[in-house]
Amino acid sequence: MRRKQSAFLFLCAVVLLGLPSVPSAIQLDKIELPAGFSIEIFAQGLPSARQIAVAPNGVVFVGSREAGAVYRVTDGDQDFHGEKTDTIASGLYMPSGVAFRDGVLYIAEVHRVLAIKNPFSEDTAELVPEIVYDGLPQDAHHGWKAIDFGPDKHLYVPVGAPCNVCEVAAPYGSILALDLAKKSHQVYAHGVRNSVGFAWHPSSKKLWFSDNGRDWMGDDQPGCEINRVDRPGQFFGFPYVHANGIADDQFKPAKPLDATPPALVLGAHVAPLGLLFYTGEQFPPGYKNKLFFAQHGSWNRTKKVGYNLMLATIDESGAVAGYERFASGWLRGQAHWGRPVDIEMLADGSLLLSDDYAGAIYRIAYQAAGR
Asked: HSE on the CB side for 250, CA within 13 Å?
């Protein structure tokens, strides 16, 4: 019953947030990029496309949220346009998260993690998800997940707070490191309201994650966040303190906090989701190890903000030296036609970017003048 109630509440939220029942018109001519960069459609017709996972053979897997499906996109002729799309799993509970490792596709529903051990099979009867981790909370509110394997081979899974703001106990408000072999987990970070994307720095191997700030404290506070985990078990303040040290107006801690401030404070309601450190060779050398992150965009602000792909520079000390807009144009005035979600890199060093509003994946590539 609890799961049915949560699903019903999520469907109500879908209506309130204005999520489309059909894909919006794609307007790539409106996208602004730095000189030398281009954007094109890699695949479309992917309702509520969320997290992306790229297999070594170039096959792309995509999770969804309200569609309840997982897609497989194949670019057989390697022209950077996915000519074939299959739905390889359906009827799932908001399977937003996907990760690929050692030939296996992992899928995160709200309450459990599944695995498809033969994800390339053309025989759809063989594509049967198996439960590999059960027992996660079933709450739909902030229950959708982005997942990935860390350098320690553990599967990292966020568990959002089941509310706008409330006091929570583990595993809520945390990022878990799952040991799938032992069926156990460690709370790797807590005091986290709603993380829907993370990545590990290529050199330091430290985990960086996005966190969406709470709602209903006004148009301009508190900010959304990009955070860095320096040690397991670190506390990031929710629900007592928000970005820029803003104390919550409803909840007060019983004792002094040892809360880690954000590595980067963003604007309120910009909704940062997917993260990616660029490690490819296609982009100019200055992009190496810079942090891309998607801003999904606001839904409850007087004037909309976000709807961009951003780029941050991390200095040698591990601090954010600055950040800037890399791609924009999904928001035109106060109307948006797309909402960036997740970022992954193809073998040639170009980037894939999912858009759950337009139901598409874009490819961003670079070609120097004269080439």
From this structure: 10
To 5 degrees, how large is the angle CA 202–CA 208–CA 210? 140
Q: What is the pLDDT of residue 256?
A: 85
* Mean pLDDT calculated for residue range 235-248: 96
For 10-66, the DSSP string reads HHHHHHHHT--SSPPPP-GGG-B--TTEEEEEEEE--TTEEEEEE-TTS-EEEEEST
- 356 contacts: CB under 8 Å, gap ≥ 6: 19, 48, 49, 50, 64, 65, 339, 341
**Distance of alpha carbon 98 from its chain centroid, rounded?**
10
313 token code pair: 């520079």
Give CA–CA dist 131/134, Å, rounded.
Answer: 7
Q: Which is nearest to 364 in space by CA: 343, 333, 335?
A: 343
**Each residue's pLDDT tens digit, 292-301:** 999 999 999 9
Phi, psi of 51 (to 5 degrees): -75, 150
What is the rounded CA–CA span in Å between residue 186 and residue 196?
Answer: 18
pLDDT band at 254 (very low <50, low <70, confident <90, very high): confident
CB atoms within 10 A of CB 249: 10
Structure confidence by residue, pLDDT tens digits, 168-182: 999 999 999 999 999
Give the integer Cα–Cα distance in Å for 65 and 144: 7
